[in-house]
C-alpha cells in the first residue's frame, strides 16, 4: 500500500459486485483494466445482514494483485491464520466487532499482514486514537455495511479529514457509494484507496471506469 498521500490514489474493486460463477475471469478483467488490488468482502450474516463468501472461496482466487480482505464478521480473530496461509496481503477488521481490538491488530501484524480497522458511519474516530500508531490503514465506511449499491454518506468526508490531520502518513481507504463525483470529494479529503463495486462492474468499459476514479 502507498502511505504517501501525494501519490496517486489506488483503486480496489470489490468483488461483492462480481459474477461469482466466473470469479477468476472477472478478476483477470480487473487486472487488465488497471486495478491496484482486489477488495474481498467477507460477511457472516451476523455482524451484517448479508452472507457472502468465506475462506474456501478466497482460497480459489487467482490474482497477481494484492488481496485486501475486509472482515464484516463477528470474531474476526478466528479467520486470521487461514487468511495468512492463503497469502492475503491486508486484513481489515471492524472496530465495532472486536472486543479486544489491540490484540487482534497485534496478531494480524505478527502474521506479517497489513493491519487495518474499519469504522461504520455511526462510529466516531475517537476510539481509534490508542491503536492508530499500530495501524497500516483505516477504512472509512461511507455506507452502512452489508450491501453494495448504496448512496454515499457525506459526513464520511469529515472523518477522512480528521484522520488525515491526526496521522498524515496514514493510509485511508473509503468504501461505499463510490462513483466519479464522490471519488473526487474523497480524493480532496485525503483518501489513498477507493473501493468501488457496482460502479466498476456495471460499467461498459472497466478500464475507463477505473481511470475515472483516479
Describe this structure in words.
With 214 residues, the chain is of the alpha/beta class. It has one domain (10-213): Aldolase class I (TIM Barrel). 30% of the residues lie in helices and 19% in strands. The chain is built from 8 helices and 8 strands, in the order E-H-E-H-E-H-E-H-E-E-H-E-H-E-H-H. The protein has an 8-stranded parallel beta sheet. The longest helix has 11 residues, at 156-166. The chain is globular.
Q: What percentage of amino acids are in beta strands? A: 15-25%
Q: Could you list the spans in which at least 5 consecutive residues all have pLDDT below 50?
A: 1-6
Largest sheet, in brief, is: 8 strands, parallel
Shape: globular
Quick one: CATH class?
Alpha Beta
Class by alpha and beta content: alpha/beta
What is the correct CATH architecture? Alpha-Beta Barrel
Amino acid at each position: 500500500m502507498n502511505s504517501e498521500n501525494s501519490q496517486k490514489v489506488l483503486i480496489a474493486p470489490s468483488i461483492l459486485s462480481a459474477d461469482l460463477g466466473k470469479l477468476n475471469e472477472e478478476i483477470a478483467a480487473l487486472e487488465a483494466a488497471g486495478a491496484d488490488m482486489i477488495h474481498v468482502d467477507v460477511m457472516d450474516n451476523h455482524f451484517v445482514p448479508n452472507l457472502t463468501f468465506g475462506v474456501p472461496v478466497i482460497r480459489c482466487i487467482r490474482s497477481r494483485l494484492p488481496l485486501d480482505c475486509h472482515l464484516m464478521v463477528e470474531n474476526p480473530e478466528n479467520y486470521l491464520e487461514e487468511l495468512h496461509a492463503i497469502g492475503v496481503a491486508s486484513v481489515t477488521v471492524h472496530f465495532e466487532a472486536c472486543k479486544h481490538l489491540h490484540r487482534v491488530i497485534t496478531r494480524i501484524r505478527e502474521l506479517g499482514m497489513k493491519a487495518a480497522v474499519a469504522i461504520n458511519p455511526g462510529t466516531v474516530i475517537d476510539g481509534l486514537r490508542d491503536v492508530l500508531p499500530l495501524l497500516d490503514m483505516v477504512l472509512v465506511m461511507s455506507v452502512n455495511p452489508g450491501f453494495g449499491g448504496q448512496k454515499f454518506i457525506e459526513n464520511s468526508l469529515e472523518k477522512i479529514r480528521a484522520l488525515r490531520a491526526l496521522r498524515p502518513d496514514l493510509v485511508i481507504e473509503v468504501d461505499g457509494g463510490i462513483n466519479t463525483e464522490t471519488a473526487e470529494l474523497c480524493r480532496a479529503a485525503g483518501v489513498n484507496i477507493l473501493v468501488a463495486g457496482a460502479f466498476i462492474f456495471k460499467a461498459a468499459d472497466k478500464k475507463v471506469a477505473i481511470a475515472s476514479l483516479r
